[in-house]
Every structure is written in structure tokens, then in C-alpha cells.
Amino acid sequence: MSHRVKTIHPALAAVAFALLHSGIALAQTPQSMPPDTEAPRSAPPVPAGGAPALSLPAATAAGAAALAPMADAPRISLQQLTDTVLQYNPGLLAAERARQGAQAAITSAGALPNPTLDYTRGDQTPRAGASSLSGRLQTVGVSQLIENPLVRRARVEAATAGERGSAQQVAVTRNELVAQIRLRAYEYLLRQSEAVAAGEALSLLEQVNARVRARVDSGEAPRYELIKAEAEIVNARSLQQSALLQAEQAAIFLNRLAAGALPARWQLDASLTDSVNVPPLETLRAEALSQNPELRVLQAENDRARAHLGGARAGRWPGVTLNYTQSREPEVKQNILGVSLQIPLLDQRAGPIAEADAEVARTGVRLEGRRAELEQQLQYASKALEMAGLRVQALSEGAVRDAEAALRVADAAYRFGERGILDVLDAQRVLRGVRADLITARYQVQAARTELDLLSGRFATPGALAR
User: What residue stretch is flagged as signal peptide (predicted)?
Assistant: First the structure.
């Protein structure tokens, strides 16, 4: 014989408990109480099952505990991280060595041609009956090319432009490297913030799960509510572990940029909420057009192409060769002085001149195109920064508080039996999504700021982070 257990609606049970508690308090009140004495207040109604409300501060503390293993790791500032990477990065060191080679090329371009020395020696034996004398023959000759000064000057100018381009290539490498450091550093902070947020969500879900389990065990709720709550816990725990692993990946990437010079475990002394001080767009545009190292590299390439064009034109008259020859014979001594000059009669170097002219046009088009592209990139990054800032403002000032309030209302309604567990989980999911959007928006603010600094060339020189 089976017995069916009847369950009382949680809201009715709470009301009945409150009325019963009030009746007991009234029965125990003395009849001779003075009129001006306030009667003791009855205790507030206890929710169904006696479950407390969700504790957001406890969830915050639980989320911060996700980074507890890193508490004893040394803290590194963003400037220290950047200095370490710049000191040991192989790509930057290779670019600096290439600049040294370009400096040596200037010396090579300015070198004067060496003279040429000719020496011949032999014997003279007359034929039978000839009147000439026998003896030794000797010839000594010296030749020196007097190079066209226009050719030499063009070669030196081309090498100098190449050295400027190599120096600016070092600045390009540094500019991009510092920007990459900043992006990866803030990505590291982003993943840590996501892990903390996932820990907070996990703590809230565990609180909900404990309440659901109590109601399921008492028969007040169906078992599928417990299954749903446990599934949400598994998902939140997976998100937390994924964020922690991605944070480790970002740290490993930064250590790779530093050629392994960073400590094995370290913490970044920075925050996604760091202040963002960006000059007006017109100031950034002026800085970009004058300081961007990519534009300077292209300008150096254009100058080098123009120098090659001048050298190709001057190469039609490469120079004059002076020759001096002294020959000694048994009967005669000769001193001969000569001049050699190449005449551009058959080859007027039309091909090399056309090639150099085309290279000048090509580098000029690249330079002007990069300038126009740079201005568009500045406008795009500026709009991205503005939009990300508006998102941060909207989410931090209203959306997060509204989502937390909605979770409290849904939790209270669930505790009193007015709503199901799905409403609580939906409210918790909305809060988790809003917090994730806020964290992402803060990262986008830092990323847009880094992009603006990169385009304006603010990382190309030492001390850029101090600006």
C-alpha cells in the first residue's frame, strides 16, 4: 500500500509560518504593558526551506580565489616587462645588427677605386744576321680610374638612404614589438579577469545548486531542476579552466618574446581599468605623418631609388682612366702617358635608367598609399576606442547593477516558490554575460588605445610608455 505525500506550496508555508510566529508573539505580550512601550517586533518570515539569499560578496571572494596560486609570484610592471623584452628579443637585436651593416655600406660606397699596376718582363734575342742587340725587355704600367663625381655621389646617397631605412626598420620593429607586448599583456589580464568572473559565477551556481538539492531531497522540486543546475556548474567550471589556460598561454607568449628571460611565475602589475589618455585625433594624425616609422622607411626607399636613378644617368660617363707605361728595351726606353674614356655611343644605359625611374614611381606610390591608409586606420581606431568607451560606461553604470538586481529578484521569487529554477539560472546567465561583455569592452579600450599609439609611432622611441 503506497502513501502519497502532499506538499504545501512554499509561499503558503512561509505565510503560515509568519502568521503563526506573530500569534505566538501576541500571546506572550503582557496585558499590563504601558502605552508608550513598543511591543517587540516579530521575526521576519523565513523563506521556504530556510535557505538564505544568494551572497554576491561571497561569490566575489570565491572568484578572486581562482588566482590564489599566483599570490606569491613576483609582480612585474608593464614598463619592466617591456624593457625586458626589448633587451632580449631576437628580432629587435637582428634589426640592430642589420643597421650596423648598412652603416658599413656607406663607407664602401664612398671608397675610391684602386690603381692598377701592370708589369711584364722578357728577353730579346735577335735573329741571325740581324743588327739588333740581344737583351732583357721590361714594361711597367700604372692606370687609375678618375671616377665621375656624380656617380660616386649618387652611390653614397643611395647607401645613406639605405642606412636611414635600416635605422627606421629598427624603429618599426620596436614599435610593433611594444604594441604586441601591450596587447598580449592586456590579453593576459583579460583572461585572468574572465577566470575571476567564471569563479564568481561558479560560486553563485553552487549556492543555487545547494538550495535546489535541498528542495529536491525534500520533494518540493522535481529532479530535473537539480540536473539543470549541475549542468550549469559544469559549464562555469569549464569556462574558468579555459580562461586560466589562456592566461598561461599569454604569459608563455610574452616569455617567448623575451627569449625566456622572464621568471617562471610572475604577476602583471597592471589592470584593464588603467587610465587611457589619448590626444585629439588631429594631434595623432600629425604625429603619425611625421613620426610613423613605416612612412619613414618608405621615404628612405624612395630617396634610395632617386639616388639610383641619378647614378644610372651619370653612369653613361663613368669616368676617365689615366694610363702611364714605361718600357725598356736593349736599345730604347719609352715613357707613354694615355687617357681612356668610355663614350656612350652604342649603350646609353636606357635600360637601367628606365628601371630606376620605374622604381622611383613605385616607391612613391607606396608612400602616398600608406599615408592615405594610415589616416583611415587612425579614424577607425579612434572610433573603435570611442565605441568601446561607451560600452564600458553603459555596462558599468547600469547593465551590471540591473543584472544583479534581476538575479536577486529571481532568487527571492524562487525561494518563495513564485518562480522556478530556470528563471534563477537565466538571471544568473544574464549577469554572467553582462560581466563578460564589460571585461571584453575594457580590453577593447586598451587594444584601441594601443592601436592608436602604434599608428602614431609613439612606441618607436625609448620611453614611449611614460607618455
Answer: 1-27
Q: Which residues pair with 326 in a beta bridge?
A: 140, 335
What's the structural domain count of the chain?
1
Q: Which residue has the cell 581599468?
A: 273
At 222 the three-state DSSP class reads coil
> Quick check: pTM over 0.85?
no
d(CA 247, CA 186): 10
Q: The domain containing residue 180 runs over which residues? A: 73-124+135-466
Q: How crowded is residue 135: how many other Cβ atoms within 10 Å of its Cβ?
A: 14
SS3 457: coil
CATH number of the domain at 417, please.
1.20.1600.10
Distance, CA of 242 to CA of 231 (rounded, Å): 17
For residue 7, being part of any structural domain is answered with: no
Are 143 and 115 within 8 A, CB to CB?
yes
The distance of Cα 62 from the centroid of its chain, to the nearest Å, equals: 31
Does 21 reside within a domain?
Answer: no
Separation in Å, CA 53 to CA 207, 222, 410: 9, 21, 11
Domain-embedded: residue 381 = yes
The candidate with the shortest Cα–Cα distance to 121, out of 143, 135, 133, 139, is 139
**40 in any annotated domain:** no
Angle between helices 293-314 and 281-291 (to 10 degrees): 30
